[in-house]
């Protein structure tokens, strides 16, 4: 059983890291603004599934395997940049479609999109790697600790990510005219380009 003081430290690390502005939360807010909370659930589910997968992988030793291989980190970095540009293209495309339709979205972000946006985000890899390096106790059974921390991290992510999705919906879903949707598509596309630039050059 993990001691309560470790849980306090765990929350002190994870909550600020997860809830703070960054590439992942920008994408979630964009999804909420474009599709609403209900329409963002598949993307959100993929997002959190990927977080859980990374927790289990790094907790069980993936960090040691990747140590000394910076080229793998570069693959994630540039893969994430390309994927964010792909999402930007999707938003620009939806903006063009909205100009010639009744304003209905023809393509939504899917579970796989959410999964890839996390798997290809180097910031999330680093955050989870540091989390396990700080809080795992080598004197205690590893699997039990990893599963507990992974489950707790999943809860933290769900609680901290929801306000970003809902906030995007609250601010932008009231604007549903064809013109507003065109503007949103362009703004969201620009946001994705800016996030891609951050991932590439930060």
TrEMBL record:
Q: Which residues cross the membrane?
A: 6-29, 41-60, 72-92, 113-135, 147-171, 183-201
**What is the membrane topology noted in the UniProt record heading this document?**
Multi-pass membrane protein
| A Pfam family matched in the record | LysE
The answer to whether the entry has keyword Transmembrane is: yes
Q: Where does it localize?
A: Cell membrane
For this UniProt record, give its keywords in alphabetical order, as a comma-separated list. Cell membrane, Membrane, Transmembrane, Transmembrane helix
Q: Which GO terms describe its molecular function?
A: amino acid transmembrane transporter activity
- The main location is membrane
Question: What is the superkingdom listed in this entry's lineage?
Answer: Bacteria
GO CC entries: plasma membrane
Q: Which InterPro entries match?
A: LeuE-type
Q: Which PANTHER family match?
A: ARGININE EXPORTER PROTEIN ARGO, ARGININE EXPORTER PROTEIN ARGO-RELATED
* Stated name of the protein: Threonine/homoserine/homoserine lactone efflux protein
Q: Which organism is it from?
A: Paraburkholderia sediminicola
């Amino acid at each position: 059983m993990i001691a309560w003081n470790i849980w306090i430290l765990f929350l002190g690390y994870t909550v600020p890291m997860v809830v703070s502005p960054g590439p992942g939360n920008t994408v979630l807010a964009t999804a909420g603004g474009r599709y609403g909370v209900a329409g963002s659930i598949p993307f959100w589910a993929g997002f959190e599934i990927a977080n859980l997968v990374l927790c289990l992988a790094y907790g069980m030793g993936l960090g040691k395997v990747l140590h000394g291989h910076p080229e793998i980190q570069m693959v994630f970095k540039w893969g994430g940049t390309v994927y964010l540009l792909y999402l930007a293209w999707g938003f620009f495309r939806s903006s063009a479609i909205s100009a010639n339709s009744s304003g209905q979205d023809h393509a939504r972000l899917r579970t796989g999109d959410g999964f890839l946006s996390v798997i290809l985000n180097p910031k999330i890899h680093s955050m989870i790697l540091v989390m396990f390096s700080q809080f795992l106790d080598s004197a205690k059974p590893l699997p039990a600790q990893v599963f507990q921390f992974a489950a707790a991290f999943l809860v933290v992510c769900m609680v901290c990510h929801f306000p970003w999705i809902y906030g995007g919906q609250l601010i932008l879903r009231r604007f549903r005219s064809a013109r507003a949707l065109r503007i949103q598509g362009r703004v969201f596309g620009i946001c994705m380009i800016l996030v891609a630039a951050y991932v590439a050059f930060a």
